[in-house]
Specification:
The chain is of the alpha+beta class. The relative contact order is 0.12. Helices cover about 30% and strands about 25% of the residues. The strands form 3 sheets. The chain has a 6-stranded antiparallel sheet, sandwiched between helices. It contains 8 helices and 14 strands. The protein has 2 domains: about 120 residues, Beta-Lactamase (2-Layer Sandwich), CATH 3.30.450.40; about 160 residues, Peptide methionine sulphoxide reductase MsrA (Peptide Methionine Sulfoxide Reductase, Chain A), CATH 3.30.1060.10. It binds methionine sulfoxide. The site of methionine sulfoxide has 14 residues, from helix 2 and strand 6.
Length: about 300
């Protein structure tokens, strides 16, 4: 039901409706983390409190202690917040996204002792689904115009955006990065569905559009801003990427090459002018040959 939808609010709304309708709970819904408090999100059931502070109630405690809390009898839980006097037992499940709790799923029952460890196990799996399947990776492949056009053609890529990564200046302009003194690399942020395309495949494609042996120069573009690299946001991806890097070096018969493999430190989108540039300017400059774009469609 949730696959294919990336919007977390839409997914929360449908998951709350499904659980409430099918299971006949008293109240099923989400509270979203906003700064220091939880704010009421999509829910089914009677009206509820809108804001819960960090560490308060069952919801705030589940957030603070970073764990699911099963409450067999709400009267026995110190600090329980009674949005409705009819609620007798409760379960609160954190929703994780990239090592952070971004929301909690809260379910109330009119009966005592409704929830157990089986509910905990399956509700944790369901709560994780609201995040949607997308993953993110950032590729620096020389001039970002061609790199964006290339990755947009890959099946399973759902969103791309060009910008500047891993430099020292916040919110740099294209002109500032162009001075080659800010430390940023031109790169393309690629958001993809991992059940359609793998990180390994995307990275193998990346190596087909760069010269991995060339330092700070791709095509006619020269400068540290045109360096090549892959930038990740989680350690699991780092392991997959290391493997692809290792195999690529072996295939090239080299010990090392100047392609960076680093955690993403920062990313600032470039101006609208640079987004989808080659779609808007089909005859615009691109260091990639027209033939190379055919590779993007290869499985
Ligand atoms: N009982 C919750 C408050 C939210 S309502 O149940 C909808 C709590 O103690 O955090």
């Amino acid at each position: 039901m949730l696959s294919g939808e990336a919007d977390i609010i839409a997914n929360m709304a449908n998951l709350a409706a499904l659980l409430q309708e099918e299971m006949g709970f008293w109240w099923t819904g989400f509270y979203r983390v906003e700064g220091e408090e939880l704010i009421l999100g999509p829910f089914q059931g009677p009206i509820a409190c809108t804001r819960i502070a960090y560490g308060r109630g069952v919801c705030g405690t589940a957030w603070k202690e970073q764990r699911t809390i099963v409450v067999p009898d709400v009267e026995q839980f110190p600090g329980h917040i009674a949005c409705s006097a009819a609620s007798r037992s409760e379960i609160v499940v954190p929703v994780w996204h990239k090592s952070m709790i971004v929301a909690v799923l809260d379910i109330d029952s009119k009966e005592i002792g409704t929830f157990d460890d089986v509910d905990k196990a399956y509700l944790e799996k369901m709560a994780a689904l609201v995040i949607g399947p997308q993953k993110d990776i950032w590729f620096a492949a020389g001039c970002f115009w061609g790199a964006q056009k290339f990755f947009k053609l890959v099946d399973g890529v759902e969103f791309t955006e060009v910008g500047f990564c891993n430099g020292r200046l916040a919110n740099p302009t294209y002109e500032q990065v162009y001075t080659d003194t800010t430390g940023h690399a031109e790169c393309v942020h690629v958001r993809y569905n991992p059940s359609v395309v793998s990180l390994q495949h995307l990275t193998e494609l990346f190596f087909k559009i760069i010269d991995p042996l060339s330092l700070n120069k791709q095509g006619e573009d020269v400068g540290t801003r045109y360096r090549t690299g892959v930038y990740y946001d989680n350690t699991q991806d780092a392991r997959v990427l290391s493997e692809v890097f290792h195999k690529t070096k072996q295939a090239l018969g080299v010990e090392d090459f100047p392609v960076e493999l680093l955690p993403l430190e920062c990313f600032y989108p470039a101006d609208e002018y640079h987004q989808d540039y080659l779609d808007k300017n089909p005859t615009g400059y691109c260091h990639l040959s027209p033939a190379i774009f055919k590779l993007a469609a290869e499985k």
